[in-house]
């Protein structure tokens, strides 16, 4: 034929071309898919590593612009929750399981401390808890929170803060046995710094200056002692200068304050305990430690699942590291590391954490969430929880495994503590023979007695006291 296009060899060639082209297109498509998956994975990895390193590289902007700030309860809880969450994904995990699940029916009869943190109000409005509203016989110790550290000295934000401290001290007129302490707080933010406690322990001159100032503050305000709330030495940078500097700080304070109380607020996650504290120094120099056994679970973008704020025991669905995120594991670990039981106060929260559920039908523990829920940054007071639970037709579940309640309505989910769960915790402290309990804080309890859950003031703190002293479950 003239054109030859219909000859057999050309027909075969055209057929081959029609067969090869779809294969090439498929291979290109597969390649593009693989490339997109790789890019997404790379972006996730980079953002993850950026999160790991962000605290090392940045100074908090509020400090740069405004200097030391007054820490509210919600700010403190949010920061601690963030630090505890970092511990959950840290490479420095401690694999340890509590030897026993404590028998809550076997008490050790003794006298127990009840140390209560009281956060200085932001202003002088009627919406805040003021010293005159505090029952002077409710707690054995009142820890006023917080002063800060600036230029190797105790720093008060304002004269108002100092006046509040003086008013708390006057509560001893109503209860001469009441002990009043000032808590000094510092957040390391995971960065190398010469500010706050890291600066204090960086050399002997700074340490001596700070301790001398602490002695003056105790004398000037007629305090019974001081509480050191460093969150957290050496964490997460594993800076041994901070770890052993903290021990030296406690030793020096003890030497200069032989007749004053010295306490420390300490972490609950096992790997922070290992990396932040020289246990021998704590055991030797402090009167007691306040174990912050809360903020085990809160909303975090890299682990956006619901969980109990302060579980007494692990859930049956917990695996691996998460089996240790509970009070039983934390307290038994402190004891196993050499901390005397009588010097351990079990910290209990009067606040909870909230979440927004992605699927309202999936509403138990470990349910996917998209962010913090009601309250300030997911931080919810007992009164706010009562309003949520009572007015929104919410479903409330008491989880027997963890001995904690949670409540949900549509896409809102909250973990909190009530009188029942705190009674279990108080029984736990009594069953182990601990030194007692710590409450954080009076400000987030129902101090006005106006919530829909209770007709009395400070119902949560009162319940802890009753159970510790009277075994009245």
UniProtKB/TrEMBL annotation:
InterPro entries: Chitinase_II/V-like_cat, Chitinase_insertion_sf, GH, Glyco_hydro18_cat, Glyco_hydro_18_chit_AS, Glycosyl_Hydrlase_18. The keyword Signal applies. Residues 112-471 form the GH18 domain. GO terms for biological process: carbohydrate metabolic process; chitin catabolic process. GO terms for molecular function: chitin binding; chitinase activity. Belongs to the glycosyl hydrolase 18 family. This is GH18 domain-containing protein. It comes from Aphis glycines.
